Amino acid sequence: MASSSQHKHQLFLSLLLVLHPLSAAAQTGPNVTRGSSLSPQGNKPALWAQSPAGDFAFGFVPLQPNQFLLAIWFAKITTNLTVVWSANRDQPVQTGSSASLTRNGRLSLLDHNGQEVWSPGVGDVAYATMLDAGNLALMASDGMGYAWQSFEHPTDTILPTQVMNKGGLLSSRRSPSADDYSVGRFQLRLLPDGNLCLNTIALPTEHAYEAYWLTKGTLGTGSYLVFNQSSGIQEVQENSSLVNVTYANIGSPGHYYQRATLDPDGVFRHYTYPKPATGNGSYPDSWTVASFIPENICSAVIVEKGGSGACGFNSYCQFANNQKACLCPERYSYVDPGNSSKGCMPDFAEPRCDAYDSADFELTAMPNTNWTNAAYEWLSPMQEDECRQSCLEDCRCMVAISKDGDCLKKAMPLSGGRVDPGYGGKSLFKIPRVDSTPPPPGLSRGRKSPPVIVSAMLGCSAFVNILLISAIALLFLSSHRKRSPRAQIDSRTVGGHLQAFSYHTLEAATGKYGEILGKGAFGTVYKGVLTLGEAEALVAVKKLDKLARDGEKEFRAEMNAIGRTHHKNLVQLLGFCDEGPHRLLVYEFMSNGSLASYLFGENKPSWDQRMQIAFGVARGLSYLHEECSSQTIHCDIKPENILLDDCFTARISDFGLAKLLMREQTMTQTDIRGTKGYVAPEWFKKRAITAKVDVYSFGVMLLEIVCCRKNIELEFGSDAGPILTEWAYDCYSEKRLDALVEHDEEARSNWRMLERLVAVALWCIQEEPSMRPSMKKVTQMLEGAVEVSVPPDPTSFISSMY
């Protein structure tokens, strides 16, 4: 007679026969027979097979124009397409590709060039069928069951009745973008010892870091994972006892769709979605989370043995409302604005120990925040004030953790950043002082005067000392006369920020203004060479034209205000000349010229370069509008006024000079300031001018950056092209953005980002200034931190007033 435990075991196995997709009762849909094929087309799913109940479909899913996945999805959820398995998640195919079950019984996916992208690796398949459980099955031609099934090769999702055996794994998607299904860095694995774990990997390899969630204890051999429709994900042990992984009491499982997905943020979530009642085709907007693990992803992921943590390097993780947010510290920004999990980078250069001055930096406190990577120095006991000072004096220290009398100093890159309300410690984050201005090239702060060999003179007689002093003086005078005039700079500084140059010095430095770099609304720019400190440096010297009749005091006050600005996306002002009728400005030299020449030239910048330029300009304007001690409105934002440094970083030039122009000076033969095609409508209507005029100009320029064409291509003649701002709205509203980037494959392959950028630009060029976002919000919208709603017709508000 069987024991009670054996009866219990047999009862459980009987239950699994009902749940398991291999049961004889499993229903199948229309078969995919040998010789069948399917090709993707258009922007709607292409169906190849469907389960008998119609809940699941198999075929091609469009990601963006000309990108497709061979996938399984919930067929009846039309408002929220949910993919549960895909064959080519890392390699989407294009139009002209095809999936086929060949006449010799081999399933294969070929790209548009006829190259095989994916195959399950089995042959002699009788037919393929879609089961009601959501399982794609290839039936063996010998009638001996399944030759292959998708349930045994999951991607990021498992479904009710699906079983995962030892060695099985789920891999998250890389990002939450609707168009990115590629393998991410989070895994759920059932280990050989029976433990279920969540861990990160070091992409693009498969090297696994330490688990951040693990089932308690080591389970017996023979265990596996099963998705129970009534209660959630369970691990079955050898003795048939159960360990709940996720638990959700689904009272009427037949009324709900269910799935369990390892999401891009590293959280394994059990989702439910109500099936519509008979005759009712309405659906909710999104799936509901029934349960999830781990409880707090931010605190769970550890970095003792490597990796960046739950978020990317130099970012920190905050978990609220069951969602993870990866955030950047002050003065840091996302490496990839479209994917916050890739980490953050500083908007300033890391301190160099050979030219470090602690006075240039300050520490900002971040309570209950910690970066858990190993400290290179642990000081104890040490209170917070001492910890601050120690980090400031140490060029390597980028963050100091002060907690319970300990001070942990850490260097970049920082990893394992997290916010924990119960932590009790404090991160002291090093950033440049807001009012600090870096020294001109070739000069370092605190440089000591070169020694004059005074010590050698101390032991000599007074007479010899006099002779030595006279000789040294003659030597310096001789050297002074031999130097080129361009090497001499006026020693005056104004307010400790800018160098005051004589007109003669700048005339010599530019070869009597011989080489013109460009002309603009504020004057002409010449190339020059000045000796700054101990080295020669290229500079750009701007001669200002038609300035307002301000006195010397007012001019210098304005120069001081400009000189105090310091941001990686602004061209740095080094000095000026205020001598008689001459007003000149000396800027650092930008080796890659203007954005206009780069954007509209023969060799157009890549999509990624254009995105970084757009984000950089937005950050620079946000700084001018909201972070300066007094708001600065540029009034002439256009590609000609955006310069590019050695690394093609966008740098705004001519900021703050609008105040110095005479009211009648203009580039467009009107009484406005700015350049035709970029001028905000309020200039023409005698309305108050605010920072929103720069927002408008930025929106026009953003469209130019996206499309690599000018807003107004030809000013006169019948061959003039459409005005870009008007055409862009038509393309956006008619859902044909591909026309804007017709010959730009990079832009077309980044469809979601393209959509976002055009929408942001359309918000910026709203004719009503109050409808335009601030530059701070524009920056957040570009970086994905703020949702971008559908923009109205830019002229709709004005039109509605008449």
UniProtKB/TrEMBL annotation:
Compartment(s): Membrane
List, in alphabetical order, the GO biological process terms annotated in this UniProt record: defense response; response to other organism
EC number(s): the record gives 2.7.11.1
User: InterPro entries in the record, alphabetically?
Assistant: Bulb-type_lectin_dom (IPR001480), Bulb-type_lectin_dom_sf (IPR036426), G-type_lectin_kinases/EP1-like (IPR051343), Kinase-like_dom_sf (IPR011009), Prot_kinase_dom (IPR000719), Protein_kinase_ATP_BS (IPR017441), Ser-Thr/Tyr_kinase_cat_dom (IPR001245), SRK-like_kinase (IPR024171)
Q: For binding ATP, which residues are annotated in this chain's numbering?
A: K543
Keyword vocabulary terms for this entry? ATP-binding, Disulfide bond, EGF-like domain, Glycoprotein, Kinase, Lectin, Membrane, Nucleotide-binding, Plant defense, Receptor, Serine/threonine-protein kinase, Signal, Transferase, Transmembrane, Transmembrane helix
Q: What is its main location?
A: membrane
Q: What catalytic activity does the UniProt entry give for this protein?
A: L-threonyl-[protein] + ATP = O-phospho-L-threonyl-[protein] + ADP + H(+); L-seryl-[protein] + ATP = O-phospho-L-seryl-[protein] + ADP + H(+)
Q: Which Pfam families match?
A: B_lectin (PF01453), PK_Tyr_Ser-Thr (PF07714)
Provide GO CC annotations from the record.
Answer: membrane
Q: Which GO terms describe its molecular function?
A: ATP binding; carbohydrate binding; protein serine/threonine kinase activity
**Residue intervals of the Bulb-type lectin domain:** 23-151
Q: Give the CDD domains listed for this entry.
A: B_lectin, STKc_IRAK
* Residues in the signal sequence: 1-26
Which positions, given as ranges, span the membrane?
A: 452-477
Which family does this protein fall into? Belongs to the protein kinase superfamily. Ser/Thr protein kinase family.
- What's the protein name? Receptor-like serine/threonine-protein kinase
Q: Which organism is it from?
A: Phoenix dactylifera
